[in-house]
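Entry 14. Structure prediction run on the chain below.
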Amino acid sequence: MTKHFQNEIERLKKKILLLASLVEEALQNAVKAVANNDMELAVDVIKSDEAIDTLEIEVEEECLKILALHQPVAADLRYVVAVLKINNDLERIADLAVNIAKRAKDRLSKTKVEPPFDLSALLGAAVGMVRSSVDALVRQDTELAQQVRCDDDRVDELHEEAFHAVEREIMNDPASVSSLINILSVSRNLERIADHATNIAEDVIYMIDGEIVRHGG
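Output returned:
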């Protein structure tokens, strides 16, 4: 590995970890905005998306430049390919955090309806998966990455419970349908965030072991 190539890889590592920290912060703030009915925090999350999008583009350009100029092989190639995919998943998590922040704003503009399911459990599980997937990336920890994959089942269960609980509540209180659908949208976004966290964990495993574990592979 040449010194120039090593410097390029180190710069890429710093950028993808910075992106991960910004995305994790945006998600945590979106969750707080929902939990605390905080309009100001919801607006901050929406505004933060532009900086995240800019950094995501920079990371992609760094990856493409490394592939074009250095033509890495073996572990180095896996690393750059994995970062490209993780970069995309992080950007999607940020977009979903913005969706949650928008739902928080909408909720404040409507008659307040309490979630008919354990929203805090779902919030905690999804955010925990993102945090663990990022930690797995930072620490190059395949065991933690495997745990994230297992945790996805729990988030799926919680989202399914939320769906059925909202369905029942709509039948009992049709006047609150708009607010209830808004709450269900938060649950759906969290379930999708968990899926992206799983993708990141699987890419970490590929990065370290060269093993493709998607779809049970």
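The helical segments are 3-36, 39-70, 74-109, 119-139, 142-172, 177-209.
Filed with the rest of this week's runs.
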